[in-house]
Amino acid sequence: MSKIIPNISIDCVIFGFDFKQLNVLLVERKLIDKDSKQVLIDDWTLVGYHIYEDEDMDTAAARILRKISGIEDIYLEQFYTFGDENRIKNEKDKLWHKHHNKHFKSRVVTVGYYSLIDNTKVKLSLSDRNVKWFAIDDLPELGFDHKKILDKALDSLRDKLRNQPIGFELLPEKFTISQMQRLYEEILGTRFDRRNFRKKVLQMKYIIPLDEKQTGVKHKAAQLFAFSREVYEKTKTERFDFTI
Amino acid sequence: MSKIIPNISIDCVIFGFDFKQLNVLLVERKLIDKDSKQVLIDDWTLVGYHIYEDEDMDTAAARILRKISGIEDIYLEQFYTFGDENRIKNEKDKLWHKHHNKHFKSRVVTVGYYSLIDNTKVKLSLSDRNVKWFAIDDLPELGFDHKKILDKALDSLRDKLRNQPIGFELLPEKFTISQMQRLYEEILGTRFDRRNFRKKVLQMKYIIPLDEKQTGVKHKAAQLFAFSREVYEKTKTERFDFTI
DNA sequence: ACAAAAGTGTTCGAACTACACCCATGG
DNA sequence: CCATGGGTGTAGTTCGAACACTTTTGT
Q1: Distance separating alpha carbons of residues B32 and B239, to the nearest angstrom
Q2: In terms of CA atoms, which chain A residue is nearest residue B191?
Q3: What is the pTM of this model?
Q4: In this structure, which of A25, A80, A224, B206 has its CB flanked by the most CB atoms within 10 Å?
Q5: End position of a domain, from candidates A127, A162, A197
Q6: What are phi and psi of B6, to 5 degrees?
Q7: What are the chain A neighbours of B84 within 8 Å (beta carbons)?
Q8: Looking at the domain assignment, is residue A240 inside a domain?
Q9: What does the alpha-carbon distance between residue B57 and residue B78 come to, in Å, rounded to a whole number?
Q10: pLDDT 10s digits, B52-70
Q11: CA of A79: how far to CAs of A13, A151, A162, B82, B156, in Å?
Q12: Residue B223 lies in a domain
């Protein structure tokens, strides 16, 4: 195996939507003193690790996510790189570093990736780390500058949702209109009129009605839809839209 | 002075607009063999260099730009980080590296920043490097993967222009409506109706008419306008806009 | 039968498009 | 006096916002 690059890391902000609320995947960071058995650190961080010398960054992001959480084959989008000289400054972070990155004391630059997946469809494989979903509005204490990174990822996700019709990569294959509406409302923090939303969505030619209905619901089953990337690429045009 | 970090660099894509066409700032990359006097490399690159160990990335970007071009105090926006394992693969690039980054053979990750300025207002200070503006549609051969970086920067600039009313940081302090229109047309590659454009712009409350007119033109002098970031921040609202 | 969400149309105002003529200035 | 860009209004159309009742299904 190749060597890791000690001053470059990747952090993945994995958003999970369960059609109720927006969640984010975090990893427990725990450090216990060998002698005194005292818990020195016990908080949470994003899914992250260093990259290897012979590895592309996108590949590294996918590997790190797979290794830590078991999640595979999802679209990851790079959104920002965090490299302030003092980004890791508090005592816990320094302590953690001393234990895990021993022969290295300089600043670590981290490249942020995010994704949005249906977290009801994903099984987290148990690695040696404790990995859990947290509701975005009920987060535990985060280590390093990961709160800042998470906030920036959420901004990027919102921008993407607002400006790129839909994150194709960011939704399950089949969905109902109101699932889609809930996703938009939850992430953008807004409410839309059901009828207008439906009208708007149905205008989009790349949203294809399927001959299939929802199952397992205790009310009228809704029709399922799918995205067609092909149609999307064809109908994509330049827009002039410097509204506000 | 502090040490440089050999595997992290910054590249600045400085777009310059002269109210006629879009330009980009490039630096000549020349390597001459000491003995044979043969020109081994003679092409152009973006404005870039490594960061120092005790320096924030934003600070480094500003410093690198200042050192190489003399340009100061402009807004630089980070847009993407390029770190493919083989991003520098051709012979010229390897040769250059051998000469300038001697004791280092691993991949260099580069963080991209861009800006847009009025290049008629900027004096390039002569450093030891040859620095020049090039029209965006008449570029010379670019070294490394800098063509790819430039293209991505242009995409980001277009996105910003389309989605964030105007890049406040990206325009001169005082401007006429038709200068603004030319900027939009040139960068987005579209044409707008003069009257409709003006109408749209004048609706924006954060675009403030000044008691001042253009000077030095051989036709009717146009009124000057300025942005008010203050008003912008106040009137900014959430939009739902997944148009296509 | 009732609870829960699906599905459906119309009206009103705002915003966008297309379009042509006169004005001020410098050379 | 002419060339160059500045400044202006209106009509038609499209788009988005607001709004309530009926249908289907599982329990």
Answers
A1: 55
A2: A240
A3: 0.91
A4: A25
A5: A162
A6: -70, -25
A7: 56-57
A8: no
A9: 9
A10: 999 999 999 999 999 999 9
A11: 10, 11, 15, 12, 12
A12: yes
